[in-house]
Specification:
Blueprint lengths: L1 E5 L4 E11 L5 E17 L2 E17 L4 E15 L2
Antiparallel strand pairs: 1-2, 2-3, 3-4, 4-5
């Protein structure tokens, strides 16, 4: 699921979440959520956006020998170019 809220032609907020796994490739469960604030601009004549946000990823895996339950999370800065 993903949705974007436009505050102006330049500023936006994006939230993205998903889940999966379901036993494929020994991944029992995987889920992720991401939230960011972005600013649309141009760089060198190319449309671009600068983003800052936070992401969390959770994996539950059961391989033959090792069971793994891990959560990775943190903030990020991004630059996206569109052409």
């Amino acid at each position: 699921m993903r949705f974007t809220v436009e505050f102006s032609p330049e500023w936006f907020v994006l939230v993205d979440g998903n889940r999966g796994g379901f036993g494929v490739d020994d991944i029992d469960f995987a889920r992720s959520i991401l939230g960011l604030v972005g600013y649309r601009t141009t760089l060198f004549g190319m449309p671009a956006s600068l983003e800052a946000g936070y992401r969390a990823l959770r994996l539950d895996s059961s391989r033959r020998i090792i069971d793994t339950d891990v959560t990775l999370s943190g903030s990020f800065l991004g630059l996206t170019g569109y052409w």
